[in-house]
């Protein structure tokens, strides 16, 4: 396809197609799932094609196998509109006993009660996110997360970012939506996230499970989440904030709205890392509130790049969301995952990047250089705490961190004398 923007997930999709009969690509609307799937597909069926939708749904309910006919790999876009297709795909994979037969894409997670089998061993699940800064061409990618793990002593001194704070603010406000890169102006590109929020609140939040929901209540909940982005705000605190503007909303109703937004891949909280370094009662194990893309939070709050340039404190929280989005993409490509650490003594790591081989990095996010010293102190204290724990613990020792990193909005990368690596987000890639 002409003008296709290469995505980090492309390589993983290729591997999955070689290993499994079918691959399910999930993620938020507009992140590029269908376009990415089309690069590998040899035939396509779009379940939401307005000219064909009714006929497709009738066929799915009568003889779904007919929709599976076509050159392979066959892409079935928004398959969740006809959940019966899941079991049909599974059976077809069993029948043909081949790899790379189907690519399924979906912008909502499906209620498991609507399918008979999990698809384990036949259908593999691949998560896709909006674009990272490296994918959008804004990070120069001169520092590789993979190479850092392979060689923690890698010389990064003097590597420079091409992005200023103003550029980062614009990138966060625009979001990682592929279509925005082709817009004629920045003003037009910024409308995408606003339109995304409108679609979520006015339509998607009700169609995701057929339960009619109040668009204004959806906005109120999203605004509360946005005000608490990148924090450990408890659900009770969010409810207190929400109920002040929607006094008839119950906690159960709010939970229903949040669940719907999670199924739409709009909200994606960060789980805690809870090693036995201290007493379990000391570890704060609540979820860190995050959006799948910072542009959603910015649009919900009605902020503009100009306003954020005058409020860098607020942008600091949004910057963390941007960094987490990018690290999720980079870590997934390496077979890893992201969590965070925080205890009641204030010791924290904004993110912990875990690889499946046991290696991990402790990471802090600091927008400006003034905060670097504090971030480095947190990371070094946590490393020392693990070391002291291992001195006392003979049976179940903890692996010491392989990397200590501070990801910044600054311009220059370097390694401190204490080993902490300072890396601009606009220098990173997987």
Automatic annotation (TrEMBL):
Keywords of the record, alphabetical order, are: ATP-binding, Nucleotide-binding
Where does the AAA domain start and stop, copy by copy?
22-135
The record's GO molecular-function terms, alphabetically, read: ATP binding
| DUF4143 domain: residues covered | 202-367
Q: Which InterPro entries match?
A: AAA_14 (IPR041682), DUF4143 (IPR025420)
Residues making up the signal peptide according to the UniProt record: none
Pfam families, per the entry: AAA_14, DUF4143
Protein name, please? ATP-binding protein
Lineage, broadest ranks: Bacteria, Bacillati, Bacillota, Clostridia, Lachnospirales
């Amino acid at each position: 396809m002409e003008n296709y923007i290469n995505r980090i997930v492309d390589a993983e999709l290729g591997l999955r197609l070689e290993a499994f009969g079918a691959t399910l690509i999930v993620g938020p609307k507009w992140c590029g799932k269908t376009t990415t799937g089309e690069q590998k597909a040899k035939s396509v069926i779009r379940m939401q094609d307005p000219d064909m939708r009714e006929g497709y749904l009738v066929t799915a309910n009568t003889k779904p196998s007919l929709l599976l006919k076509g050159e392979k790999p066959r892409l079935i876009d928004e398959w969740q509109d006809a959940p019966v297709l899941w079991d049909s795909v599974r059976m077809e994979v069993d029948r043909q006993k081949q790899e790379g037969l189907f690519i399924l894409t979906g912008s909502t997670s499906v209620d498991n009660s609507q399918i008979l089998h999990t698809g384990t061993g036949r259908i593999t699940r691949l998560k896709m996110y909006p674009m990272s800064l490296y994918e959008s061409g804004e990070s120069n990618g001169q520092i590789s997360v993979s190479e850092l793990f392979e060689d923690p002593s890698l010389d990064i001194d003097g590597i420079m970012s091409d992005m200023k704070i103003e550029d980062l603010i614009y990138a966060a406000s625009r979001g990682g939506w592929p279509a925005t890169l082709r817009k004629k102006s920045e003003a037009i590109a910024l409308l995408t996230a606003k339109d995304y929020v409108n679609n979520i609140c006015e339509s998607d939040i009700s169609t995701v499970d057929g339960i009619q929901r109040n668009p204004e209540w959806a906005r109120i909940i999203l605004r509360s989440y946005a005000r608490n982005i990148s924090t450990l705000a408890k659900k009770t605190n969010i409810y207190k904030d929400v109920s002040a503007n929607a006094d008839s909303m119950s906690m159960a109703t709010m939970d229903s709205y949040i669940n719907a937004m999670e199924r739409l891949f709009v909200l994606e909280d960060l789980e805690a890392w809870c090693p036995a370094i201290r007493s379990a009662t000391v570890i704060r194990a609540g979820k860190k509130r995050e959006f799948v893309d910072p542009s959603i939070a910015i649009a919900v709050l009605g902020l503009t790049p100009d306003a954020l340039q005058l409020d860098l404190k607020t942008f600091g929280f949004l910057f963390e969301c941007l960094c987490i989005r990018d690290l999720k993409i980079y870590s997934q490509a390496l077979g890893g995952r992201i969590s965070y650490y925080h205890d009641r003594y204030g010791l924290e790591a904004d993110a912990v990047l875990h690889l499946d081989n046991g290696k991990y990095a402790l990471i802090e996010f600091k927008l400006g250089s003034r905060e670097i010293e504090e971030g480095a102190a947190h990371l070094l204290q946590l490393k020392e705490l693990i070391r002291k724990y291992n001195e006392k613990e003979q049976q179940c020792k903890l692996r010491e961190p392989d990397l200590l990193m501070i990801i910044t909005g600054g311009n220059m990368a370097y390694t401190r004398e204490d080993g902490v690596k300072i890396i601009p987000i606009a220098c990173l890639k997987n």
